[in-house]
């Protein structure tokens, strides 16, 4: 069964939380992260892309993990993203670690395990953990934790099947 997201909530007063963005995070951090993420979206060399994420954004990304063209990492808190080894992040996927609402903003780590496949055009929301050997179907919106070896798909993503753990 899929579990709820783990996010920390921060209430705001007055204008909406996004309008107060630079009271919660430095402008220059956002500027730098945006620049690196834009470059990384178009870099065709997987090892260079991984280097940019690890070195410039302080993300944890395992060996032989491939992040496809146009994938977008969270611009505000990319350091809250951890991706295991030998994982594929599909074309145009978005991984978010923040959400700014009217009266609060929320932050949550995104942890993607080893040997995971995230299909193209998927969105991973803050506070989600995707277990080892899981698969996320193309175009899915992952709103809850995904257990190891599960196949999820849809909006919101739901478990289609859970594979046996033997023979992985």
Automatic annotation (TrEMBL):
The keyword Membrane applies. InterPro entries: Hexapep, Hexapep_transf_CS, Trans_hexapeptide_repeat, Trimer_LpxA-like_sf. The chain crosses the membrane at residues 30-48. PROSITE patterns: HEXAPEP_TRANSFERASES. The lineage of its organism: Bacteria, Bacillati, Bacillota, Bacilli, Bacillales. GO terms for molecular function: transferase activity. This is Acetyltransferase (Isoleucine patch superfamily). It comes from the Bacteria. Keywords: Membrane, Repeat, Transferase, Transmembrane, Transmembrane helix. SUPFAM superfamilies: Trimeric LpxA-like enzymes (SSF51161). Gene3D superfamilies: Hexapeptide repeat proteins. It comes from Laceyella tengchongensis.
């Amino acid at each position: 069964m899929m579990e709820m997201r783990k996010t920390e909530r921060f209430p705001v007063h007055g204008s909406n939380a996004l309008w107060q963005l630079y009271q919660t995070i430095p402008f220059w951090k956002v500027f730098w992260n945006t620049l690196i993420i834009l470059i990384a979206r178009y870099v065709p060399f997987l090892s260079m892309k991984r280097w940019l994420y690890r070195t410039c954004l302080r993300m944890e990304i395992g060996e032989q993990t491939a992040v496809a063209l146009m994938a977008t990492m969270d611009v505000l808190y990319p350091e809250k993203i951890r991706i295991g080894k030998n994982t594929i992040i599909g074309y145009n996927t978005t991984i978010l670690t923040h959400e700014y609402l009217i009266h609060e903003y929320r932050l949550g780590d995104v942890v993607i395990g080893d040997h995971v496949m995230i299909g193209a055009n998927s969105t991973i929301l803050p506070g989600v953990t995707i277990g080892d050997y899981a698969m996320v179907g193309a175009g899915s919106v992952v709103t809850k934790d995904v257990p190891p070896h599960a196949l999820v798909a849809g909006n919101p993503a739901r478990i289609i099947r859970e594979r046996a753990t033997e023979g992985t």
